[in-house]
Amino acid sequence: MADAPVVTYSICACDLDAGQWGVATQSKFLAVGSIVPWAAPQVGAIATQAYANPRYGPRGLALLGEGLSADEVVERLTAEDDGRAIRQLGVVDGQGRGATFTGAECMAWAGGRAGDGYAAQGNILVSGETVDALAVTFESTAGTPLVTRLLDCLDAADAAGGDSRGRQSAALLVVERDGGYAGLSDTLVDLRVDDHEDPLGELRRLHAIHDDLFGQTPRERWISVDDALRTEMDELLAQAGHATLAGWAGVENLEERVDGEDEIDPVVLARLRKVG
To answer: Is residue 141 part of a domain?
Structure first.
């Protein structure tokens, strides 16, 4: 048994059209992101909490990969675990089916809701309104990016009462086949706030930085570099001590947003102009 329960609320979810699966969670527990969230593209997403069994993550993803449904994975994992009465689990499978489980001995308030594309759950919460807020927010934000929906779900759950013991950590994990760094990673977003007085605010701040560095502006919105803009850019680069845009972007970790010098991503231009 774990030394202390992972007192938390979480949501596993997917966007089948975008090919994305993810988990968002917040807790009065140190480094919740190291235990609760698990996901694999085209396979599914899992959250394991309460007196968490971390083996539910890799074992559950393996079962999903074999073609089991979310309900079947929950049944298999809990049947194999003598400690099921103190476990809590959420699963979304590769087809978007959700399932949630709360053991009979999880500490109140504890429970979950599952629907099309999501599974929401929590334990030692102020009330069931926290889980309701996760579910309602997810259901009402269809059509927006999965990352945004998950962050909005956490905020709504916190506003509805959240963890009865308070706040400490939060995490956001979203995966997409070849959707991560340089197209060579399946991890689209993996952000963790391990110990903070305002973990959701800090998670939002980190995501904003992540989006600046690794987000994608549609090519039609890039700006053509004419003579006047090129002169301005050269002056700003000189002030920063760089001869080329690529060299400066490498230092600023913006290389994923640079592709030659005939057009410039507006996010890169805005950051470059801050040099002056």
So the answer is: yes
Do 142 and 186 share a domain, yes or no?
Answer: yes
User: Does residue 134 sit within a domain?
Assistant: yes
At 18-66, the pLDDT tens digits run: 999 999 999 999 999 999 999 999 999 999 999 999 999 999 999 999 9
Q: Does 85 lie in the same domain as 46? A: yes
Residue 224 domain-assigned (yes or no): yes
pLDDT tens digits for range 154-201: 999 999 998 788 899 999 999 999 999 989 999 999 999 999 999 999
State residue 112 phi and psi, 5-degree precision: -155, 170
Q: What CATH number does residue 188 fall under?
A: 3.60.20.10
Number of domains in the chain: 2
235 domain residue, yes or no: yes
Other residues' Cβ atoms within 10 Å of the Cβ of residue 229: 13
